[in-house]
Design goal:
Length: 525
């Protein structure tokens, strides 16, 4: 319970959301106001037949407002450069989704900054924070394909299989077009493959439906190599998964996913990269049907078919540190799982917070010959995570497990905690139209809370963080300044309008005074 009354806080929040001014996107980079930019149809930048870029090196500049009125392919040997502060608005094209597709051998260099993010969104989005997060599937989104390892096999027997082991056709696109292929033939994989840079990029309102159960993910990564840079990327209101990794070795850091309609992280087909600092929030509207938001926090698959193991396929084995997932609710029948572990997945998930899911870690087929049982053998490691307000913190083969050897390993050996409430503020209320918030989440634990005995490895990618969750306790969240969440005031609620709350726990009390006293006489240099 916040010390400030909900009524007092709500008054300030409603005014802030309703009066949200349009982003001055790129102003600090010298970009003009979006309304003053010259409109450019992206169909003029591609071949009218193939949809490949006309020029091998194409740059999108922030003095223009780009309208995605076509599919755009960055084909093998081509480079697409996107300046900081650039805005792309995509037209809806039901059944034939407009999307930007970076094929194997192509590269995208979208290198934004905190003050000048790159935004790709729906044509109708006024960019002032008022475009409803219920507007999903308004365009395709961004698809990046590479030449790193996948365990895709021709024997998988699904429409995405090709005749070549190690190569698949990416979900959501037509079979037969080699620009839709990802991965490489077995033995020819390029795990250090570089598909470019995605930094400070916001992908909004995508996931357009192409066919039955066939939508495009917010950011689709197929066989993408670890030479690619992905950090500070958000996916907002996508109709399918937020981030999906189809094999590959790519690493990703500082990711945000909100109001999406499927999983927030989904890995499959031998993905073995690293992820740190992930923040996911499902929508507060849980009426079912088109308004539902969210599925699993993490859906962890090893492959598409059990035959992959017999055919030499290596299971997924990624490493995740410091994630925070806030589910819409765990009380309704269709509620979801924090970690849905299935199909032989391996991997490591450490120092993360999962709130309000029906199940925390849900092991599907975890005994007998199904190799998901490697959890019991130590090949799927979930350690020092906190499961808040999750009815079933550990569920194995459909059975809720709260005692015995598996429970002891889960809690005592692996350091996982199951608590009824607290740690972060994970409830909020948003009304439509306009994304008006009358109660916000605060995903930042109080200073000194959410500690962990484990630290991420020092390997050139991970950042040392001996705490649980995506945000350093008591510190300003890294979402500020560049995300839609910050613009509409979704997170860091306690700090907004509560300036004395130094430890960001939603209360102004003796703990804040202690912080102030200890810092008194210091300086900020």
């Amino acid at each position: 319970m916040k010390t400030l009354t909900r009524m007092t806080l709500a008054a300030g929040l409603t005014v802030a959301a309703a009066g949200a001014q349009a982003q001055s996107i790129g102003a600090s980079c010298g970009c003009p106001a979006v309304s003053a930019r010259t409109q450019v149809l992206m169909s003029t930048l591609v071949d009218p037949v193939t949809k490949n870029l006309l020029n091998a090196n194409t740059t999108l500049t922030c003095n223009n407002l780009y309208v995605l009125d076509t599919r755009m392919y960055v084909n093998d040997g081509q480079d697409l450069f996107v300046e900081p502060g650039t805005v792309v608005k995509a037209n809806n094209n039901a059944g034939l989704a407009h999307a930007i597709i970076v094929a194997r051998g192509g590269q995208i260099w979208a290198n934004g900054s905190e003050s000048c993010p790159i935004i790709m969104t729906a044509a109708a989005d006024p960019l002032d924070g008022s475009y409803s997060v219920q507007n999903r599937g308004q365009w395709g989104s961004l698809i990046v394909l590479g030449r790193a390892y996948t365990n895709k096999r021709s024997a998988d027997g699904d429409p995405t299989a090709t005749a070549t082991n190690g190569v698949g056709t990416i979900e959501g696109l037509d079979a037969g077009d080699t620009r839709h292929f990802y991965g490489m033939p077995v033995g020819q994989e390029m795990n250090d493959d570089n598909s470019g840079v995605l930094r400070y990029v916001s992908l909004r309102h995508g996931g357009e439906v192409i066919g039955a159960n066939n939508e495009i993910n917010g950011l689709t990564l197929g066989g993408v190599g670890r030479g690619t840079t992905i950090d500070h990327v958000e996916v907002i209101a996508n109709l399918d998964d937020a981030f999906e990794f189809f094999g590959g070795t790519v690493n990703a850091k500082y990711l945000v996913a909100m109001h999406c309609d499927d999983d927030y992280i989904d890995w499959d087909q031998g993905y073995s990269g690293k992820i740190q600092f992930f923040y996911g929030v499902q929508g507060p509207d849980n009426g079912g049907g088109a308004l539902n938001q969210g599925d699993n926090g993490i859906e962890a698959d090893a492959d598409d078919a059990a035959t992959n193991a017999a055919n030499g396929g290596i299971p997924s084995n990624p490493t995740v540190y410091n994630a925070t997932f806030i589910a819409r609710t765990q009380t309704i029948a269709q509620a979801d799982e924090g970690i849905e572990a299935k199909e032989r997945t391996e991997g490591t998930i450490v120092n993360s917070i999962f709130t309000r899911f029906r199940s925390g870690l849900n092991l599907v087929g975890a005994t007998g010959t199904n190799a998901t049982g490697k959890w019991e053998g130590g090949l799927l490691n979930v350690k020092n995570c906190t499961f808040v307000d999750c009815s079933n913190p550990l569920r194995i083969n459909g059975v809720n497990t709260t005692s015995g050897a598996n429970w002891d390993r889960f809690t005592l050996t692996d350091g996982n905690l199951a608590i009824a409430s607290g740690l972060i503020d994970y409830t909020y209320v948003m009304t439509q139209p306009g994304n008006v918030l009358t109660d916000r989440v605060n995903p930042v634990p109080a200073a000194g809370a959410a500690t962990s005995t484990l630290n991420a490895p020092v390997d050139g990618f991970f950042t040392g963080a001996k705490y649980r969750g995506a945000f350093q306790p008591g510190a300003e969240p890294w979402t500020q300044g560049w995300t839609l969440a910050a613009q509409i005031g979704l997170d860091a609620a306690a700090a907004a309008g509560c300036t004395g709350d130094l430890n960001r726990d939603g209360q102004i009390n003796a703990a804040d005074f202690t912080l102030f006293v200890n810092a008194f006489g210091g300086n900020c240099f």
